[in-house]
Amino acid sequence: MKKPGRLLTAMVTPFDERGEVDYEQTKKLAVALLDSGSDGVVVAGTTGESATVTWDEEQRLFADVKAAIGTRGTLVAGTGSNSTAEAVEATRNAERIGVDACLLVVPYYNKPTQDGLYQHFKAIAGSTSLPCILYNVPSRTVTNLAADTVIRLSQIDNIIGVKEASGNLEQIATIISGARDGFLVWSGNDADTLPILALGGYGVISVASHLVGKQIKDMIDCAVKGETGKAAAIHRRLLPLFNAMFVVSNPIPVKYALNQVGFRAGKPRLPLVEADEKSAAVIKNTLKKYQIDLPV
C-alpha cells in the first residue's frame, strides 16, 4: 500500500458568484497545490466545507480532481459521517470513482462511546479496500477519539493512520508508541506539525499549505533528515501565518487569503460568512510578511 505522502492539503472548495461549486477552479487549485509542494489533496473535508456540499457535488469533486491530478498526487476523499450507513455508502461511491484513500471524521452530534467509535470505523473499513485515515477533531465533533481506541483500530489492515487535531500531544505520543508498526500520524493543526514530527509522527494535513506549501514541505524534510534547527526556524517563521489561518473558523481565513493573493476561491457557504473587518485585517497584514508559493 503506497503511503499517501507527508504533506497533504485539506483543500478548499471554490464557489462561483452564485454560490455553486466552481469545478474548473477546483481542478486548477488541485494542480497548483501539487506544483507548490503538496504530495496530495484532501477533498470535501472540513476545509472543503463538507457540511454544506451535497453528495452529488462531492462525487463530482472527487471525479474531477482525480481527472486533473491523475497519478501525480494522492487524492483523499472526505467520506466520513455521523451515520455509519451513510459513511459506508459514501466511501463505496468514492472507491468506484477511483480515489486513493478516504478520510473518516469522528461522528459528530451523536456522542458515541469509544466502543461505538470502534464499531463505526471498523464497519467502514470493512466495506472498502481503500486505505482509511481516521480524523480526530474534538473541537468540532465534541467526542474525542481516545488513544486506546486508535491503537485498537490500527490493527485493522486498511486503517493506515490518523489525522490528529486534538492538540493533545500526550495522547498523540501514546498513539505513536502503541499503534501497530507502519501506522501513520498526521498533524491536523499546522501549528502542531513540528512537535508531532518530533514525537515520531509522519506529516500534516494542512490548511496553510494552500499558501506556503513549499516552505512547509521544506520544514518537514528538514525534520525528517534530523536538521532540527532548520526545521524549528521555519516553524517559528511560519507560526504567525498558521495562527492567522484560524483567527476565525476554518475555512473562512484561507478562502479570504486565497482571494487576496489572486486565486479566486469565492465566499464560504452559509452558515459560514466572509471574514469580518477585524479578522480580514489580521489576515491581510500577515500575508504581507510571506512569500506565497501557490502559482496564481
What does this molecule look like?
By secondary structure, this protein is of the alpha/beta class. It has one domain (7-226): Alpha-Beta Barrel (TIM Barrel). It has twelve helices and eight strands. It has helices spanning 23-35, 55-69, 84-97, 114-126, 138-141, 147-153, 169-178, 193-199, 209-224, 228-244, 252-261, 277-287, and strands at residues 7-10, 40-43, 74-78, 101-105, 132-136, 159-164, 184-187, 203-206. Strands 1-2-3-4-5-6-7-8 form an eight-stranded parallel β-barrel, surrounded by six helices.
Task: Name the features.
single chain; 296 residues; alpha/beta; TIM Barrel; 8-stranded parallel barrel; 12 helices; globular
Order of helices and strands: EHEHEHEHEHHEHEHEHHHH
CATH class type: Alpha Beta
Q: What is the straight-line distance between the termini?
A: 33 Å
Number of helices: 12
What CATH architecture label applies?
Alpha-Beta Barrel
Low-confidence stretches: none
